[in-house]
Description:
Chain A has 14 helices and 35 strands. By secondary structure, chain A is α/β, with parallel strands linked by helices.
Amino acid sequence: MSVFFLYPVFLLGxxxxxxxxxxxxxxxxxxxxxxxxxxxxxLLSHKRISRSYRLRHWILLALRxxxxxxLALLLANPIFQTGAGLFAGGGPVSLVVLLDNxxxxxxxGDGNGFKQAKDAARLLISALNDDDRAAIVPTNITGKEPFRxxxxxxxxxxxxxxxxxxxxxxxxxAALGKAYELLNVPxxxxxxxxxxxxxxxxxxxxxxxxxxxxxxxxPFKLIxxxxxxxxxxxxxxxxxxxxxxxxxxxxxQIDVTVANFGESELKDVLxxxxxxxxxxxxxxxxxxxxxxSSLRFQTRLSQPGAHAGxxxxxxxxxxxxPTTNFTLxxxxxxxxxxxxxxxxxxxxxxxxxxxxxxxNPSGERDASIFLPTVILTDGLNTATLDGYQxxxxxxxxxxxxxxxxxLQSFLRQGGGVLIFAGDKFQADSYNQKIARDLPGQLGEKxxxxxxxxxxxGKFAAKHPALQFLxxxxxxxxxxxxxxxxxxxxxxxxxxxxxxxxxGDALLLEQNVGAGRILMMTSSADRDWTDLPLxxxxxxLIQSLAQYLAGGNRGALDGGIAVGAAKEIALPPTxxxxxxxxxxxxxxxxxxxxxxxxxxxxxSIEENDRAGIYRVSLPVGGEKNAGAPQMYAVNPPLLESRxxxxxxxxxxxxxxxxxxxxxxxxxxxxxxxxxxLALPLLALLIVTLxxxxxxxxxx
Amino acid sequence: MPNGDKNYFDPKVLAGxxxxxxxxxxxxxxxxxxxxxxxxxxxxVEFEEHRxxxxxxxxxxxxxxxxxxxxxxxxxxxxxxxNLRAYLLMDASASMNYxxxxxxxxxxxxxxxxxxxxxxxxxxxxxxxVTFSDHIESFIPxxxxxxxxxxxxxxxxxxxxxxxxxxxxxxxxIAGQVxxxxxxxxxxxxxxxxxxxxNGLRQFRFRGNDVIVFHLFDQAELExxxxxxxxxxxxxxxxxxVIADPxxxxxxxxxxxxxxxxxxxxxxxxxxxxxxxxxTATPLDRALASYLSWRG
Lengths: 698, 296
């Protein structure tokens, strides 16, 4: 409840209230002298009326003073306001209501925060007078949306009803910037009201410097939707792949990390994994206060291709985003043709023993993404490479004539070839037949005693095929491997991927057409090196095979945050065409594919709802263009955190804007503005009439 | 000479006449014109003069010797022939020297006194004059001589109004000096203690005198027609001052004055004293008519 003035400058007129007193004092000084015979009668009269006269005199003085006060107040036009926090300024008001529709509003206000916020906004709109104008701006805007101040309450209320909880966080800079933009017009009184749970997340990303214009003179009030109880507060922090790849009918491990933002332990939260809408597995998890815990789901995907996954947390009263989406790209099994150039009667001693087990450790069909087929060198004459993604030649002495053309064709069509050397390996034959395709000219064979073996000196850690070596265990493992037999090579077009300590190359790469050749200058078994015995051997072989197969071994994509842009790289041939995106609410959008450097890019910016977005390549687009068929969008993790910004931090963020925080309950008491001009005018008239009447009687 | 076109009794007109004798004559002649003269002479042993008979005179008072000698009727008149001895008491205190508009109370009172003296002497009654403030300024014993008017007027014109009023004491003093019964005419603004004034007047009544009181007021004294904050200074007592807003006290003031008048009137009536309130704005004929009504 408060009173404010439309034209406060007229309050200076209150100083004039002293005029009657001054006039009275001046009159007393300016006495007229009259010599009079009947002074005794005057004295007698004076004595008789003294008390009532003085009383009336003071009443008159008070009335005159009051009249001046009423006149000054009337000109200042006071407005009486009931209901705390309705309007701090006078009218006509230009009001911008910023409505926090971030996801955290779902759990604020003891579970009905957004409803409370809408009720508060409705109250503000309802309290507007006919000559007031207002706009309602949700806080999930980008800043490009058109808004305008309008006076029609019914329209404003309809706009308010249409605002829904967004899955993202607040875009305070855009919302506040829009408010100042809207209020950058001449208006009697301007106000900004921000109805919010004061969630820390939105303010974390806020900087006043990001606003184009700021007017600290405009009252900025935050209507705080608080909560009386602290609910259990947690959400899924991360979903990642627990297994090395994702393939159809292969074991799939999905690790889920749950974060507990609250102080108390989250006990027995049910986590449920579903893929493509089907429940796969449920587990219970408990998370200590202010901590994280992980669990692992194990499942299989029956079909290759894109899959939509979802992990949902279920616990009564849990505050925080319960559902996290992700996508899975399951691969067909990678068919690998392994050629054993030095077969032995003992399987263990064969050239491909370690290699084939590295590709499929259990040896079962549905145990690895790689499906190796081992043939002997003789088989090359009749072998067909159709259906294989990778060819691995292990100590194959020489390439048959009939196979050379197949090999080159295979390479040009995108196939990958991994060549291992060995004691049977005839470098000259390779140099002659596929010299152009080899990473380097093969030179002399260097074979020493095992005791004088060389260690691996360095490797190209950033190469896609060797990124797994970022793991320090694997790095140590590969650096501990020793090589005592290998072929020297002359410098090729590209730097070696792995180099021995003496500087000789161990692994080289050469792109051929759409395919590529990797050349290992040592053996695939432990004849020339102990690498097959090292921990790093299995991931190295799988990574190299994966790389040669096109780099895709299936992936789990945790997606992007709501509001973030999704960039999809596409072949340059698609520039100028449109990508069709189907949102979780089934609405579709066309996104232009533009050129960027030497590639085509489609930037999808309208990721405003959490869920799975499905991407359709334009007609004529290549099926395997590398574009994902779907991607996941999730609410920002921290939007689930219920921490609020403190008053001190808030002021520091907003300075020089002065923000006043009003509890939403204060608005619920209701409010009304009353123009006091008419009552004051009536009072003034009554005062003057009484003064005139009393004056006449004196 | 006065004529029918003039208001003989308008104080403002009278104020323009500087000569008091002329003023008195102006008033009285105007008043008496058209009134049939009726004498009321008394008896005395001391012959004063003969006067030609006029209808209305008593037959027994005709001097038959003179008829035989002059063949005309004469009436013998004696010095104490009149049975009226009038004392005109004129207040000459400073408070009388006030005029809000035109004539002062003193001038009005002098004119009234002079007119009365003129009238009394013209009717061959005896008229005397006492002027006073806080003491007796002049004392002229009553005489019925026609030329006595000159002496009375001279005393009135001798000095203006000055000094404080002490009506009660003066009346008591004068009462002691009046040996024979007669008419006491007091012309004053009576700005003294009412009880003291009445005590003095009662002294006259105790001695068998008839008393007429002409209580003079200036119109401003009756209505207090001033505006603004005013410091009122008393005309007689220099230390008597009061600041007042006449608008604020006017109603009460009028009540106070009226109460004073009513009290005086009542006290006078109770003591068989003829009491007349005269405003200086009142035409003088009303004052004189009051006297004539008493005189019969």
